[in-house]
């Protein structure tokens, strides 16, 4: 969910771009953004990918099962495109048409900016308060409407 939708309830075509970027980073890493945990920090998957990108260590993001059978340059390109899609400001994100062009061509990509939701979480406090505890094993909820 894009930051502008989560915070202000504003939805646009750039919200879909944000979601696509999250999906790309999840595919490359083999990890889900929701519930992502790293031993060295408390960032989400987006924050982790951003830190690696800034430090020119994006190769460390690649899923070990993907690493042996992939074109590394394409995966690194996909990672950068994914980061371009999850930038904090909607105006900084590319259109989906541009995303397709970036993935299909070998042209030079712009530098990514900080992603939305790039904050340090305190996982231990969340665990104590029960915020990370799923309400059901399959992560599906049922809401019953009770009219007045």
UniProtKB/TrEMBL annotation:
What keywords are assigned to this protein? ATP-binding, Kinase, Nucleotide-binding, Serine/threonine-protein kinase, Transferase
Q: Does the keyword Chloroplast apply?
A: no
Where is coiled-coil annotated?
none
User: For the Protein kinase domain, which residue ranges apply?
Assistant: 1-109
Nucleotide-binding listed as a keyword: yes
Q: Name one Pfam family in it.
A: DUF3403
Q: Which domain of life is it from?
A: Eukaryota
| InterPro entries found in the cross-reference section | Kinase-like_dom_sf, Prot_kinase_dom, S-locus_recpt_kinase_C, Ser-Thr/Tyr_kinase_cat_dom
This chain belongs to the protein called: Protein kinase domain-containing protein
Q: Identify the species of origin.
A: Datura stramonium (Jimsonweed)
């Amino acid at each position: 969910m894009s930051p502008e939708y989560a915070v202000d309830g504003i939805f646009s075509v750039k919200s879909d771009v944000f979601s696509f970027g999250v999906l790309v980073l999840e595919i490359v890493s083999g990890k889900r953004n929701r519930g992502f945990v790293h031993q060295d920090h408390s960032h989400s998957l987006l924050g982790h990918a951003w830190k690696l990108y800034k430090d020119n260590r994006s190769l460390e993001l690649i899923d070990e099962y993907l690493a042996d059978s992939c074109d590394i340059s394409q995966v690194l390109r996909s990672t950068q495109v994914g980061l371009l899609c999850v930038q904090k400001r909607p105006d900084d994100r590319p259109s989906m048409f541009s995303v397709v062009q970036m993935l299909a061509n070998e042209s030079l990509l712009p530098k990514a900016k900080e992603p939305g939701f790039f904050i340090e979480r305190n996982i231990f406090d969340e665990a104590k308060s029960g915020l990370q505890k799923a309400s059901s094993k399959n992560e599906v909820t049922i809401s019953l409407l009770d009219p007045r």
